[in-house]
Amino acid sequence: MNHFVSLVAASLILAACAPRAGPPADPASLAPADPRLAELYAGSCKACHVVADSGAPLVHDAKAWAPRWKQGEATLLDHVVQGYKAMPATGQCASCTPDDFKALTRFMAGKEGQK
């Protein structure tokens, strides 16, 4: 019985020392790693995608982006270029290329680096 109590105590101590996942990052603190994309993001996307009441899915909010991502990346990109509901056409990024839109959408959806 003594060994059992020792084992349980050791397990609890180790569990208490384990790293914990912190709260999700504040959307306003997130930006693409690429400096050029970060500048485009800050000048266009960020104005809506970090404001909870804007109606836009927040950056890296997996729950908000999941149903949109299920529509397919081509549909999302069409919404960006053509505009959709409150989303203005091109997200008001006149200097963004199709590849920029794709990279920025992937970043905001938390899909960067995925195919």
Overview of this protein structure:
- With about 120 residues, the protein is mostly helical.
- It has one domain: Cytochrome Bc1 Complex, Chain D, domain 2, CATH 1.10.760.
- It has five helices and no strands.
- Helix 2 packs across helix 5 and helix 4 (about 75-80) packs across helix 5.
- The protein is globular, with a radius of gyration of 20 Å.
- About 20% of the residues are buried.
Outline the fold blueprint:
Blueprint: H1 2-17, H2 35-49, H3 62-70, H4 73-82, H5 98-109
Helix pairs in contact: 2-5, 4-5
Class derived from helix and strand content: mainly alpha
- How many individual helices? 5
The total strand number stands at: 0
Please, what is the average pLDDT? 84
CATH superfamily: Cytochrome c-like domain
State the share of residues found in helices, binned by percent. 40-55%
CATH topology: Cytochrome Bc1 Complex, Chain D, domain 2
Per the principal axes of the C-alpha atoms, what is the gross shape? globular
Largest sheet: number of strands, sense, barrel closure: none
Rg for CA atoms: 20 Å
- Span of the ends, CA to CA: 53 Å
Unreliable parts: 7-12, 14-23
Amount of beta strand: under 5%
How many domains? The number is 1
What is the CATH architecture term?
Orthogonal Bundle
Question: Would you state the CATH class?
Answer: Mainly Alpha
- String of helices and strands: HHHHH
